[in-house]
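Task card 7
Instruction: Convert sequence to structure tokens.
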Amino acid sequence: MDAAARQAVNLNVLRRHDPAISAIVDTSSHVVVYNFDSATETWKKVGIEGTMFLFRKESLNRYGIFVMNRLSTDNHNEELNSEMEIQVMGDYVIYRTLDDKVVGLWIYEASDRARIAKELEKWVVAARQMGAQCLQQSWIQFDVFSRHLAVFIICALAEDLLQSVDTDRVPSSVSATCMLARFRPDPPVSAHWFLKV
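Output:
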């Protein structure tokens, strides 16, 4: 079987476990997964070893690690995020998860280890940059929305106030409707437009 056919077969197998996976970016033929036990300060095998795939998901261009377990049906599937810390220590690529779990990937091939660690670090940095951009864009859009909302509330309060005023004292050339029409912005159809994350 040539490399392209093998890649297609592997992608189909991964999609059975996670249909959102769109591509295999890199692989390593033999990886063993360990967890660090902070109580005893030792590494413990979790019973997962086999081929590791670095994958990409199309939605929001996310990346992750999938170790197809040769020992059982329990696989290791971890999506990368901006909070991860990745480092190489000896034969291990080590990372910390969001829930403060420390995972060690023992990678048999030294050339795979260096390449994969570099790739993972690149994706984590990209996730941080994308997260910062999304947060900045969300705050800018929220600020615009909140300004529209504030003007809308002020106009509604002004309308209530004008209705309580004796209308004989308001000049006939200026009606409450005309005053409000000049200042009331069109409210957004939906508040979801500013939540582009």
